[in-house]
Amino acid sequence: MKHELRRVDPLRAANIGALVYGLMLTAFALFFSPFFLMAGLFMPSEGAPGGTLFLGFMLLLYPFFGLVMGWISGLLTSVIYNFIVRWTGGLLLEFDGAAPTPASGSAGT
Which residue of 21, 27, 31, 79 is surrounded by the most CB atoms within 10 Å? Predict the structure, then answer.
């Protein structure tokens, strides 16, 4: 059974993008933080503690930037998709089995 995706809600796509990017960059920061911490131990102690500052930046700000950039990219991607789909047609999705049920609160119900 084939269905055509004609429109994506920009705010919902932005929220999903924010969560996906935020969680990915949180996992990335947590995975690589021990390596940056170990690298900071081997850095010369003269001047500012670069390794420690970078680790703090990565653990605190990197996931936040992921949330912000994921929200912006999700919003822009859905707006551009909705604009282009007028001329190209929507994505053609094929499902096996029964037809998908519409989401509650959608225009079709």
Answer: 21
